[in-house]
Amino acid sequence: MMNFSIIGRGCTQEQREEYIEYDTKNNERQELADEFNDMFHTYSAQIAGETGIDICENGRDKGQVYKPLEALYNSIIFFGDDIQEGGNDYPFASKIESFPHRCFHVTDPEDTFETLEAIKKLFNESL
Question: Which residue, 29, 78, 92, 119, could crosslink 62 as a Cys pair with Cβ 3.0–4.6 Å?
């Protein structure tokens, strides 16, 4: 997988916020991903995060690591901000079908932390 950022990783927070506002209004990343997908049929591009585009070889996405992880671990807990169909976390999230594996939609690092704290609290209460 490759992640492409139009504004670059070294942008300032102000530039990042300006681009997010611009892209929200103009859908530039979606247009670029759609153009890429029309041109290259063995790869797929989709918007990712707030400023990026993820590009993967077809069949080579986050979902490809599920089986090896499932073979190693009794329980998988996955956190993703883009788990809906078409989202960059969907290929992995869609493979999590039943207990003991769990998938949680989160919106940002703080939400992830709060979700982890809630899981921890539930676990401690069940002991």
Answer: 92
